[in-house]
Design brief:
Blueprint lengths: L4 H21 L11 E5 L3 E2 L4 E9 L6 E10 L1 H4 L6 E8 L1 E5 L6 E5 L8 E10 L10 E12 L4 E14 L4 H4 L2
Parallel strand pairs: 2-10
Antiparallel strand pairs: 1-3, 3-8, 4-7, 4-9, 5-8, 6-7, 9-10
């Protein structure tokens, strides 16, 4: 029995697809792209009156120096939409030539530059939860951060938004009050 041209093409396409898929599966996994920003928050839960520290670390993931690195930090909509949640940034320190918290609710950092390939710069921003802040279930302070940096002699740039872990505002209980 003779095969039709369409049958031969279908068989050839099926074999080629199978070989192609097997070839893709045999490829070694490539290394994950380096993340230029790591963020840590020292407390997942804090009571009114407590201080919380946010550590922002920029790592130059490029093969040339980063000439300019800017970062801002803002509260999320959930934080700003709850008027009973009160906090204020108190300090900002680290590898920066400018760190401002003009409204006490957000801030901006210009990291020391240049940043060599693979090198890091770190800034710690602290905020205090007001003693009269609301607390309890679903009461949180959350932020996001915007990072912008220039490299390759200022000819190229990268930017992006990064979430900052939130902090639950726990109410003082009778056990906590004795401490």
């Amino acid at each position: 029995m003779r095969r039709s041209t369409l049958g031969r093409l279908s068989l050839s396409a099926a074999i080629a697809s199978t070989v192609g898929l097997l070839g893709l599966a045999a490829q070694p996994a490539s290394a994950a792209e380096a993340v230029p920003m790591t963020i840590t928050v020292d407390k997942a839960s804090a009571m009114p009156g407590s201080t919380v520290n946010i550590t922002l670390t920029f790592t130059n993931d490029q093969t040339t120096n980063a000439q300019f690195v800017y970062q801002s930090i803002q509260p999320t909509w959930a934080t700003t939409s709850d008027p009973a949640v009160k906090y204020a940034f108190t300090t900002c320190a680290g590898d920066t030539n400018s760190c401002t918290v003009p409204t006490k609710q957000s801030g901006a950092v210009v990291f020391n530059a240049p940043v060599l390939p693979g090198a890091s710069r770190t800034v710690t921003m602290s905020y205090q939860i007001a003693a009269d802040s609301a607390c309890g279930p679903s009461r949180r302070v959350e932020f996001y951060t915007y990072l912008y940096y220039e490299y390759q002699g200022g000819q190229l740039k990268k930017d992006g938004l990064y979430p900052v872990g939130g902090t639950d505002i726990a109410c003082k209980t009778a056990v906590n009050a004795k401490r």
